[in-house]
Amino acid sequence: MFEFVQKHRGFVGVAFGLVILGLMMTGGSATLMGDGGAGTLAKVDGVEVTERDLQTLAGGQQVPEAEKPKMVEQLVQRQLMMNQAKELNVLAADAQLREQIGKIDAFKGEDGKFSIERYKSMLASRNMTVAQFEQLLGEDMRMQTLVDSLGSSGFSSRLAAERLVTAVTQPREVTALVFGADKFMPQAVVSDAEVKQYYDSHQADYRLPERVKLSYVVFSRDALLPTTVVTPQQLQEHFEKNKAELAQEERQVRHILIKADAAASKEAKAAAKQKAEKLLAELKQNPARFADLAKQNSEDPGSAVQGGDLGYNRKGVMVKAFDDAAFKLAKGELSGVVETEYGYHILQLQDVRSKSFDELKPGIEQSLRAELAQKRFDAETEKFTDMAYQQANSLQPLVDAYKLPLVQSDWVSREASADPMLNDKVREAVFGDDVLNKKHNSEAIEVSKGTLLVARVAAHEKARVPPLTEVAGKISDLLKREKAVKLAQAEGKKTLAALQAGTPVALEWTPSRPISRLRSEGLDKPAINAIFSAKLPGYAGVENKDSYIVFKVSAATAAPMDPAMRQNLVGSLEQVTGRQTVEAYIAELRRKQKVEIAQPK
């Protein structure tokens, strides 16, 4: 049924919400509206919208509570349109109805023509009668007629879209004067009294939270790796015990693929197989040509350039039919034509190998060292945890016993730390009474799998507001910047007023460049709006965070636009206009008709 929905939503799911398709998918047999026995969700001019309608729209799926209001609104909008269609006596002619049904591929027989038997059987399989389906389709067609009528002024809509595209794409030549705060910093003078006044009224902004500096040690499996020794005997024993897996046979195979996947027609598969058999016959005459023929004919792009070489692979890596064939061949032997889900293959075995102990030794050693280090870590975890607790007045016993580095942190608050090791769990522990006030070690905290951390407080500061002397410099810089911005903006506005009054200014303008709404060249929205609000030729200005920019704006001839791009833009704008028209129409219907939404229980 999903395929039916995807292919035919244009014919069946007209107007709103694919409601007919939802009904077909659930196998329901009730009409969409007017069944008041299934829990009323809303009323539209007295016509009930029910829980059954909601289930129909949802395709029989459970509707999350958060989604219900939106879906009820869709049903209300549909009923508004249905009521209006009835009032205007908008009908779907029988001929139009038959035409739409006849276009639906799902109702066509093998000859591509509409089949009344297939039509009835498909509807019956979903517990729906022909009359019910045609009633619902007719309702949606009536609503679509209403929607289409809203676009009757299509010429004017397209003309408006054309004009809007021209407005969006037509550039203006723009040059600018930038009044930046940096140039006015020397003129920005801040007194001690201003700094003090700002400090007094903004102390909360400078309040420092309670914070600590920590000493900590980290004990982990990885820390034990360098001191974990793997003996030659352990390496050999591990190899012998796991030889079947570690030294598994690997085969180097070349192949030629002629593609014919599961979706290919019988004719295409037959042609692909015939081509493969022809290549096999040629190879049997001269197997040495395998690489050349693979480069010329194989449709596996990854291996064709390598003469079909797939490298060494263990059994089970390839698809089963390919794998079975590859592991039956003798060195140099050709397979027959092997069919897989990808098509038809010809195989040639190049080599067989098994890795030796010496080749595998580095990997075995690494694996064994990690395994032994994990065992050491597991065995030592309880001892490490007990030592942290029993000798809670110092981290030095842990440092000495486990040869761990003692790490010193920067300031850490309850809320944050720049050190990723000092996560939420650690910060919660170190601000607890036992660690913060009693000066004990923390417990051994698992900061990640296989990693334990023990910390203690090295320094502690309560929350405080720093004295003015500590922050006076920052405040002075802040106030100077604010004054410099005001000076820059005042000078910019003064210059703009002079230019608009016809007074020339002796300042250096930036190079001229074309600016359009479509190509803003990095300018933000306020700047673009200012440029396109200016009379031509003319001047405009805009405040930025720390500057003021004056623009000199002149008209420019629009460069020819790619016709396809222009057509796409016009079409997109027409669609937006169409949506807005429908939304406005529904809003008007809502004002005319009485809509009651049931309150959730």
TrEMBL record:
Subcellular location, record wording: Cell inner membrane
Domain PpiC: start-end pairs: 248-351
Record's bilayer topology term: Single-pass type II membrane protein
SUPFAM superfamilies in alphabetical order: FKBP-like (SSF54534), Triger factor/SurA peptide-binding domain-like (SSF109998)
PROSITE patterns named in the record: PPIC_PPIASE_1 (PS01096), PPIC_PPIASE_2 (PS50198)
Keywords linked to the UniProt accession: Cell inner membrane, Cell membrane, Chaperone, Isomerase, Membrane, Rotamase, Transmembrane, Transmembrane helix
Similarity comment: family membership: Belongs to the PpiD chaperone family.
Protein name in the entry: Periplasmic chaperone PpiD
Pfam families in the record: Rotamase_3 (PF13616), SurA_N_3 (PF13624)
Coiled-coil residues: none
Native source organism of the sequence: Chitinimonas viridis
InterPro entries: PPIase_dom_sf, PPIase_PpiC, PPIase_PpiC_CS, PpiD_chaperone, Trigger_fact/SurA_dom_sf
GO molecular function: peptidyl-prolyl cis-trans isomerase activity
